[in-house]
């Protein structure tokens, strides 16, 4: 009796172990192939995944795994799994600034052959650049983003074309006792780096050279520091500029203090909830510095395939589907994220959700990318720290300090703040 | 005696010099061997889980090792230590940590002692009083830190609104004050608990006798209660100092180290986990390890803090 029970117990355990091992071996309950997608929480992304699962018709099944909401948290989770050579990650939603770092570390599969040409055809050039490192394609652009200049048409009849023009118009409004403030991202974080990168590129300057290994910070980049200081010390700047992130800027303008806002297109959808405010809420291209047009820093998400995936073919196939024109349109209409495939902008439904789509598309064609270097995270931390608070910038001295600390960060020598 | 020592040196026997150990019987020896054998798995596990990571971080701290550049790994010996020790960010973090530690532990000692006295002497609702004081310590630090953060965020927080709606967490000194406050709020109950255990050591008869002799309340506290409680106070201080020195969770949630509010642990996290720089990050952890060891040494050797469980009355 006792022996029998022990035998049954052992058999039970054995069966359980066997079952568990088959389940993990296939990574799926119905003996199919699972492609695990890791992406930030996007409201309607599951609908995109469902579309692709229907299209895959049982060849594989995509599972949407949500990463943390904050970019740093997303990166940390992925990097930790990469470092442990986790083979349960297949497709990854990467912030555009991470491509170089993860590719250099050998964690991403390169896009080659027909997959590569399918990604490249019809995709806007600048988003494609963010997916490229050392002339190899490591990701497929999913959505993109650029900042515009938002203004109140009841206060500003014609939007300013240049940086100086914007500041003097705003100061004139403030002098007349009108709500003429300029709001934007001045807090010590990535938003400040985006602002500075836009100014540097618009002015034709360079922060880090093309190889991504040498800190340059040339004269034009120093001029951009002066432009940033001019904004931060202007009479028209939002007093909490040096603490403001995207949403602080949006709220400050919606509360009626500001005439100008430098921000991403999501503020348009948010403004529609306040009809009184929305009717005068207009957009224009980002003010230029140096040249005729501004070269705005591009944002957004790219899909990459993990180097440790056990299903590379299915993963690449899934990427092509997840970022197809049809699904980009769905994401644009439902989640408000600008597409990376040019033809999507011309779809009739886009006019309603994206009245500023032509401005976005034009801005994108002339947009700039953030420095492509594996040490981007470090470089970004250093830039944000050295430039903060922007009002205390001393262009020459700050430029020298930036060059020195950036070089240390690129050599992974210095201490990150 | 001298003959025995010479013989030992000659045969290089590993046994210590004490002659009484020679008197061990065969049975005792076997018992001791068995004891060692039984302990060995646990001891080896301990070495593996605590010793290896320490050794590994020592090894890493002498290498240039950045996960982003796996091909550029090389031995650099003490270059990382030079880089860290010559960095203003590191010294800023050290100062932030030291100031936070000294200030919060000092305030906690005073508050904790008052709380302990109240709890010790409470006549009505003793259970309720003790339970309520312990609530902050029972809350998960990160959760508490989030509620502090919301409270101090203009627009959503009652504390920020009550003080004029300034974003206090975005400036260095005010932010550090908020962090200190959160730490004090959170760990004073722990201090009070340890001190209350010490208070129980003070005999009532002694206090009554002193009162008969005309000692005032303050004199009784300073001359009788505090000296008798000294071991408990020192243990409480040691624990809290070591804890406070490693402050991380409160800071992580409240400021994440921006505006120069990084503690040494926060800075290490930023370099190690965020920056993927294992060399520099490990160097920092080794330095923290050394600093913590120094604090413990100072407390135990100079102030005579007894390790909990030892029975030599606070002296070693």
Helix share, percent of chain A: 40-55%
Average predicted confidence as pLDDT of chain B: 85
Multimer state:
heterodimer
The CATH superfamily of the largest domain in chain A is identified as Periplasmic binding protein-like II
Write down the Rg of chain A. 24 Å
CATH superfamily grouping of the domain at 87-257 and 288-303 in chain B = MetI-like
List the helices and strands and how they pair.
The complex is a heterodimer of chains A (417) and B (316).
Chain A lengths: L1 H25 L7 E6 L5 H12 L4 E6 L4 H13 L7 E5 L3 H6 L8 H8 L4 H6 L1 E2 L2 E2 L2 E6 L2 E5 L10 H13 L5 E3 L6 H13 L16 H14 L13 H9 L3 E6 L2 H6 L3 H4 L2 E4 L14 E7 L6 H11 L2 H11 L14 H4 L3 H9 L10 H11 L8 H16 L7
Parallel strand pairs in A: 1-2, 1-3, 8-9
Antiparallel strand pairs in A: 3-11, 4-5, 6-11, 7-9, 7-10
Helix pairs in contact in A: 8-9, 8-17, 9-18, 17-18
Chain B lengths: L1 H10 L14 H36 L1 E2 L9 E2 L3 H7 L2 H34 L4 H13 L2 H11 L6 H5 L9 H28 L4 H9 L4 H29 L3 H6 L9 H11 L3 H25 L14
Antiparallel strand pairs in B: 1-2
Helix pairs in contact in B: 2-13, 3-13, 4-8, 4-10, 5-8, 8-10, 9-10, 10-13, 12-13
Fold and architecture overview:
The complex is a heterodimer of chains A (417) and B (316). Chain A folds into two domains: 2-145 and 300-365, D-Maltodextrin-Binding Protein, domain 2; 148-297 and 375-410, Periplasmic binding protein-like II (D-Maltodextrin-Binding Protein, domain 2), CATH 3.40.190.10. Chain A is α/β, with parallel strands linked by helices. Chain A has helices at residues 2-26, 45-56, 71-83, 99-104, 113-120, 125-130, 163-175, 190-202, 219-232, 246-254, 266-271, 275-278, 312-322, 325-335, 350-353, 357-365, 376-386, 395-410, and strands spanning 34-39, 61-66, 91-95, 132-133, 136-137, 140-145, 148-152, 181-183, 258-263, 281-284, 299-305. Chain A is built from 18 helices and eleven strands. In chain A, 46% of the residues lie in helices and 12% in strands. The longest helix of chain A has 25 residues, at 2-26. In chain A, strands 2-1-3-11-6 form a five-stranded mixed beta sheet. A four-stranded mixed beta sheet of chain A has the order 8-9-7-10, sandwiched between helices. In chain A, helix 8 (190-202) packs across helix 9 (219-232), helix 8 packs across helix 17 and helix 17 (376-386) runs antiparallel to helix 18 (395-410). By secondary structure, chain B is mostly helical. Chain B has a domain at 87-257 and 288-303: Orthogonal Bundle (MetI-like fold). Chain B has a two-stranded antiparallel sheet. The longest helix of chain B is centred in the first third of the chain and has 36 residues, at 26-61. The relative contact order of chain B is 0.11. At the A-B interface, helix 3 and helix 17 of A face helix 12 and helix 13 of B.
């Amino acid at each position: 009796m006792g022996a029998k029970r022990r035998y049954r117990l052992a058999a039970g355990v054995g069966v359980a172990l066997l079952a568990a091992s088959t389940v993990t071996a296939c990574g799926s309950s119905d003996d199919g192939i699972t492609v695990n997608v890791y992406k930030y929480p996007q409201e309607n992304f599951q609908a995109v995944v469902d579309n692709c699962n229907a299209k895959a018709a049982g060849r594989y099944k995509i599972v949407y795994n949500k990463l943390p909401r904050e970019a740093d948290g997303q990166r940390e989770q992925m990097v930790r799994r990469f470092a442990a050579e986790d083979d349960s990650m297949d497709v990854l939603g990467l912030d555009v600034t991470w491509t170089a770092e993860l590719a250099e570390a050998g964690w991403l599969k390169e896009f080659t052959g027909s997959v590569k040409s399918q990604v490249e055809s019809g995709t806007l050039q600048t988003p494609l650049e963010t997916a490229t490192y050392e002339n190899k394609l490591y990701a497929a652009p999913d959505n993109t983003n650029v900042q515009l200049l938002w203004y109140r048409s009841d206060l500003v009849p014609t939007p300013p074309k240049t940086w100086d023009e914007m500041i003097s118009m705003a100061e004139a409004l403030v002098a007349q006792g009108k709500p003429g403030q300029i709001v934007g991202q001045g807090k010590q974080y990535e938003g400040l780096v985006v602002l500075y990168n836009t100014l540097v590129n618009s002015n034709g300057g360079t922060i880090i050279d093309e190889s991504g290994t040498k800190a340059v910070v040339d004269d034009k980049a120093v001029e951009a520091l002066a432009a940033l200081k001019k904004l931060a010390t202007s009479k028209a700047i939002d007093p909490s500029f040096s603490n403001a992130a995207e949403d602080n800027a949006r709220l400050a303008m919606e509360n009626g203090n500001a005439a100008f806002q430098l921000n991403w297109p999501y503020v348009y959808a948010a403004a529609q909830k306040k009809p009184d405010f929305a009717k005068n809420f207009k957009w224009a291209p980002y003010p230029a510095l140096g040249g005729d047009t501004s070269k705005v820093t591009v944002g957004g998400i790219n899909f990459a395939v993990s180097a440790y995936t056990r299903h590379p073919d299915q993963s690449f196939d899934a990427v092509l589907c997840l970022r197809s024109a049809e699904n980009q349109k769905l994401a644009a209409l439902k989640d408000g994220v600008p597409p990376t495939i040019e033809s999507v902008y011309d779809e009739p439904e886009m006019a309603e959700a994206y009245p500023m789509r032509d401005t976005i598309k034009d801005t994108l064609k002339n947009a700039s990318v953030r420095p492509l270097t594996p040490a981007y995270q470090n470089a970004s931390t250093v830039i944000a720290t050295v430039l903060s608070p922007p009002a205390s910038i001393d262009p020459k001295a700050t430029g020298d300090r930036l060059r020195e600390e950036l070089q240390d960060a690129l050599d992974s020598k210095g201490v990150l703040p | 005696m001298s003959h025995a020592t010479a013989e030992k040196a000659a045969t290089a026997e590993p046994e210590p010099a004490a002659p009484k150990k020679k008197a061990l019987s065969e049975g005792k020896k076997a018992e001791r061997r068995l004891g060692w054998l039984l302990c060995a798995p646990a001891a080896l596990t301990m070495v593996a889980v605590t010793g290896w990571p320490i050794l590994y971080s020592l090894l890493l701290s002498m290498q240039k090792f950045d996960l982003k550049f796996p091909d550029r790994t090389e031995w650099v010996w003490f270059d990382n230590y030079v880089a860290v020790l010559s960095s203003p960010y590191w010294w800023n973090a050290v100062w932030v940590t030291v100031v936070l530690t000294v200030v919060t532990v000092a305030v906690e000692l005073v508050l904790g002692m008052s709380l302990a006295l109240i709890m010790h002497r409470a006549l009505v609702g003793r259970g309720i009083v003790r339970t309520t004081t312990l609530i902050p310590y029972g809350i998960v630090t990160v959760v508490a830190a989030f509620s502090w953060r919301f409270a101090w965020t203009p627009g959503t927080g009652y504390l920020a609104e009550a003080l004029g709606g300034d974003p206090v967490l975005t400036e260095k000194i005010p932010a550090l004050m908020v962090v200190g406050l959160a730490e004090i709020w959170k760990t004073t109950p722990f201090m009070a608990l340890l001190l209350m255990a010490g208070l129980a050591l003070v005999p009532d008869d002694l206090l009554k006798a002193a009162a008969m002799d005309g000692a005032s309340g303050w004199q009784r506290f300073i001359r009788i209660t505090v000296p008798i409680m000294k071991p408990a106070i020192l243990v409480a201080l040691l624990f809290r100092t070591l804890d406070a020195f490693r402050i991380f969770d409160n800071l992580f949630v409240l400021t994440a180290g921006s505006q120069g509010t990084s503690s040494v642990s926060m800075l290490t996290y930023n370099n190690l986990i965020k920056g993927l720089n294992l060399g520099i990050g490990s160097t920092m952890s080794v330095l923290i390890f050394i600093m913590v060891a120094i604090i413990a040494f100072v407390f135990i050797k100079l102030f005579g803090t007894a390790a909990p469980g030892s029975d030599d009355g606070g002296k070693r």
